[in-house]
Amino acid sequence: MKIVVCENYEEMSKVGAGIIADLLKAKPDCILGLATGSTPVGMYKELTKMNKAGEITFKNVTSFNLDEYYPLAPTHDQSYRYFMNTNLFDNVDIDKANTNVPDGLAEDPAAMGEAYDAAIEAAGGIDLQVLGLGPNGHIAFNEPEEELYAGTHLTGLTESTIKANSRFFESIDDVPTQAVTMGIGSIMKAKKIIVLASGKGKHAVIEKIMSGRITTMCPGTLLLAHADVTLIVDKDAYEG
Ligand code: F6R
Q: Which of 60, 75, 88, 115 is the most exposed place for a label (fewest CB within 10 A)?
C-alpha cells in the first residue's frame, strides 16, 4: 500500500483529483468507482475546475457508486444519487445515462445487487475506485462484522454510522437504518483503489491499517490485501 501524507484537506483533494485526471487522460472511456460523504467533496470540486478549464473530460466515462441508503428515493436530497448529481455529475460533461448508483428503492435488493455487480463486470470492471473510511473502519457500507459480503447487498447500518451521518439529516430519526452497498469482493476487484481520509477522527482507522494486520472488524484493513491501493491522508488523519 502506498501512503501519501498531505499537509491538509485541500492538498489531499488535489492529489486525489490529480490521480483521477491522469487516468482520464490515459483512458478517456475509463470506469470510475465513486464514493459520497464529506471527504471527496473537495476532490470533486477540483475535478470540476479541471473539466471547466478543458483539461479533462468525462464524456466517455462510466461510473458506479459504492452505495445508497435504503429505502430512499433518488430524488431525496439526502440520497447518494442526489449527492453525486449536485457535487459532480451536474457540474461536469459526464453523460448521466452512464452514471450508476445502487437502487435505493429496489423491490428485490438481492437481485438488484447481483445485477449491479454484473453490470460492473460487463462494463469491463472498475479501473479506479475511490473510497472514504468510516470512523469505525467501514468501507462503502461494509460495517465491522465477523462475516462480510462479497457482492452488492442490502445491509443494516451500525448505530455509530447512523450517528455519524445524522449531521446531514434534520434529526437522527430521519437517517435510514439500512443501505445497499457494494461488497468487499465488488470493491477488491477494482484495478486500482484510492482511499481518502482527512481529520483526527480518522486517525484510529489509519493506525489500524498501518499496523499491517487484517480484520473484518475494521473493513479498511482488508485493503492491505489489494495490489494497488494508494492511501491519501492529511496530517491530522496520519498523526492524530
Ligand atoms: C460513501 C461511503 C462511506 C464513506 C464513509 C466516510 O459512499 O461509502 O463509506 O466513505 O462513511 O464518510 P465521510 O467522508 O463523510 O467521513
A: 75
pLDDT at position 70 is: 98
Would you state the pLDDT for residue 138? 98
* Cα 37 to ligand 1 centre (Å): 4
Please tell me the CATH code under which domain 8-198 is placed.
3.40.50.1360
Task: Enumerate residues lining ligand 1, CB below 6 A.
Answer: 35-39, 66-67, 132-134, 138-141
pLDDT of the residue at 190 = 98
Closest C-alpha among 138, 137, 126 to residue 193:
126
Domain boundary assignment for the chain: 8-198
CA distances for 193 relative to 22, 42, 109, 167, 227, angstroms: 14, 18, 26, 27, 9
Predicted TM-score of the model (pTM): 0.98
Determine what percent of the chain falls in helix, strand and coil, rounding each to the nearest 5.
40, 20, 40
Q: Where are the alpha helices (DSSP H) in the chain?
A: 9-26, 41-52, 80-87, 109-122, 159-165, 184-188, 203-210, 235-239
From residue 40, give the alpha-carbon distance in Å to each of 10, 109, 232.
11, 26, 11
Q: What is the pLDDT of residues 170-197, one digit of tens each?
A: 999 999 999 999 999 999 999 999 999 9
Q: Which one-letter amino acid corresponds to residue 216?
A: T
- Going from the Cα of 136 to the center of ligand 1, the distance in angstroms, rounded, reads 11
DSSP assignments along 186-204, one per residue? HHHTSSEEEEEE-SGGGHH
Ranges of the chain with pLDDT below 70: none
Residues marked active site are found at 67, 136, 138, 143
* Per-residue pLDDT, 155: 98
